[in-house]
Amino acid sequence: MAGSFGKKEHAFKTFNNDLKTDNFPAVILMYGCEDYLVDWAASSLVKRFVNPGALSLDYVKLGDEVQGADMVLEACNTFSIFSERRVVWAKDFPALKSASPKGFAASDRDKLIEYVKNPNEGTLLILSAEMLEEKSELVKELKKTCRTYEFDKLDQSTLAGFAEKRFKAAGVQISRDTLRYMIDETGYFNKETEYRIFNLENDIKKIIAHSDGNVIREEDVSATLNGDMDTFVFNFLDAVSNNMKEQAFGLLHNILASGSDVFSIVGLLVNHFELILEVKEFKQDGMNLAAITGAMKMHEFRIKKAMSFADKFTVEKLKSILSQLYEIDRNIKTGVLEQNLALELLVGRI
Fold it and tell me: Are 173 and 246 found together in one domain?
């Protein structure tokens, strides 16, 4: 940790440093929303201390089916012969998630607390859960006595470093600007998002598969992360801006037939038309791409996309379309218009 008023170092970095020095006590508590990092840390400890030829003997992974303490303690008190240390991982341990879990008596809690105070140094016990019951006596004792790693969401620079290493390991290059765009598009830092590092790693693999060379482009990121809905919006905008209403109708029917939510479609169209209008007004004020990007604090790639449509509409037309979209949203929500009919009327009026 930096000083008393400094920002706490993320557990990802702390654990990496501890791994370099083999600085691990006999009992470790891991928790947090980033399950991927918990799994990565536990697997790193297994690789470090357990002989690969003795995995079946010296590595024990217990799931949430464990209720009492005896199974955990029996695994911990068995000595290793072939490995530097025996590793026991109680993953999603019920006694961490509840103060009184099913099948877990006060005597079980006391046995574990007693073990934590005087553990078998030849065994490394990992206790983990996504969320902790802070009122639990066991949790309180573990936090007071043991090494604790809270694997919550990564910060911007650490996440960028994590992603950059994955691209590098795959033998492809990605610029910092494109990397930043990718992170923005994932929505990882949105407050209500369920997007996690596990999702990011999968998306990185998809982006690499989509690219046709050894350099990742913004187009690869957009096509992979935004998928069918984003493709629909840009194709729809292209159709309506060129007065190709039959094509616009076809695109609309296809996206609705695929099961896409009408409110999501309307919301997406509102966001894009608002962006196009704002870019259009900035352009009329004489601002170039760099100036608009700086003023809107948005990635250049999105601004470029909006600029490509801005010249095809007047400000008055964009305001009219947005007014109709707001009205359609209200009419659908209040039941004045049937959802599909409302969107078809919009296409007819554009």
Answer: no
